[in-house]
Input
Amino acid sequence: MIIQALAFYLFSAVAIAAGVMVISARNPVHSVLFLILAFFNSAALFVLMGAEFLAMILVVVYVGAVAVLFLFVVMMLDINFVELRQGFLQYLPVGTLIGIILLLELVLIFGGWVAAPEAAANVAIEIPPPAELHNSAALGRVLYTKYIYLFQAAGMILLIAMIGAIVLTLRARPDVRRQRIASQVARRPEDVLEIKKVPSGGAG
Amino acid sequence: MPAEIGFLSMAAPEIFMACAAMLLLMGGVFLGERSARLITWLSVATLLMAALLVLSVAPGESRLVLLSDLFVTDSFGVFMKVLVLAASAVTLIMSLGFNEREQIARFEYPILVVLATLGMMMMISANDLIALYMGLELQSLALYVVAAFHRDSLRSTEAGLKYFVLGALSSGMLLYGCSLIYGFLGTTNFSDIAAVFAGEADVTPSVGLVVGLVFLMVGLAFKVSAFPFHMWTPDVYEGAPTPVTAFFAAAPKLAAVALLLRVLIGPFQGLAGEWQQVVVALSIGSMLLAAFAAINQTNIKRLMAYSGIGHIGYALVGLAAANEAGVRAVLIYMAIYLVMVIGTFCCILCMRNGGRMVEGIDDLKGLAKTSPGMALVLAIFMFSMAGIPPLAGFFGKLYVFLAALNAGLYALAIIGVLASVVAAFYYVRIVKVMYFDEPVGSFDRPVGREMVAVQTVTGLMILLFFLWPGPLLAAAEAAVRALFAA
Output
């Protein structure tokens, strides 16, 4: 038990510290790397709660895709981050105030948390206790059986996203010189070479 | 297991559409860019085939829930699906000539339309909040892409982006509403939600549930472009290529109205007292805004956008009555609206001057002298939209206002009639421009056989509806009975 508690405090402390570093690091690439650290620690917190599927999704989706996308954006786009940061101290008081209000609201919400009494009676699928069944297995049991319709619909949506991305970006550009290997190989000397006899001696 | 497969055949139209769209995509990729015409006609055939399948698996009086209670088929679904499929097919046919002339004829366009239509059918058949959202996103994502389909045109790209951003916002609101409903009821299934309210005669719902329902309605109001969630409509209608606008004004609007009816009459009928006020507010706002904002428009596509907002307002009058007569009036109104809007856009697609599309109302000057046939058809649609008897549009309005009066919503009906009087001004102005102004130039001819056919058929349907209204009324009646039996 004590190891679990220690692990919880370790992971949450690192996650919060990484979160602070994300907004305070000077180099934007470092910010993104700290963001990835924060994601990993949050994933570890999910594992501690027994939600290993969410933990894996967080790593796969956020670290694997979103954070890498951020890195690309930060490194490829020419954004002047020094200029973006200029008003930091100026906006600090207002920002802190909003942060405190948000924190208070969250405390109030979680303090007054009650589950709707009638909601429990209607749950679509009983959640199996984690000790009996891993939650990825529990999700797998319903995803491909009960929710196969929605799963297939999600597949169609991704297909549309793919078609859309191609339709809106792929274009045949006539002004680009492409390498045509076949025509290069098929070139014959007599088509492209012209042998000129240069008169020697020079009469004139 | 055999019983399950037999059940699955009730979803045959959707399964067929999904498979056909993927096959057409493969065909298009293999045949290359020149296959646009072939793929378009095959897509039209797919849509018509799907409509036949919808009719052949129609469950009649009964109501079938399948695919783990996520999908429902009933007469209401059949009615709406047939209309949506027909609208998509006709707008695809209308797009052929335009896309080829503007050199944006690509095989992806008809495939995206088929996929969007598939999304609409899933919306119409949704029996669960998640299924609703999946259908809606399938439809919307395809629509964002086709709005920006003319990617070399700045306005088309802008329309696509604007539609995407506002559509994403509306999806967010809808999801927020769904999550609140799920949080307060513990279920996303429509049958289960309906069962929660069926037990008690006089339910006092929790505030969170009502907030969730309102957010859900806001998300759907975006999709039907009802006031005050209409602001994307004029810009998107103006910017998108005209056949795409015609498609937007017809099928997706009908599907979104169907979804609104499905949600409000199905699971949330017990909360009618709560959502009625929202519907009344949306309706009054849409009718008044459309009546006054359309007066100053000079672009006919923008005018049609405002006109569409107004028509949604009138349709919502019927929904506000929240009884069988009201919903039947909504169905009749939307069916007639569909025919009018397709016919009108068919005329707009024929507005070409010197090989270039023109969209100004002034370009219609003296149309009665230069092309009398088209002027006559357009005049029929304008009079019908204004609600002049004996054209079909009059009957649509008559039914919704009668339903509102019978339900005791006198103020709403009176505001509706007054708004339609104001709206009559800008419809009749187009007729005046066509018949009494001197011609400034004539439109290019010939316009194409398919355009003439669409204009003639839709024009005759509107003109002669009063002679033979029986089939539509009977179909709407059956659809409404199925919806209320749920």
Notes: Chain A has a mean pLDDT of 83.
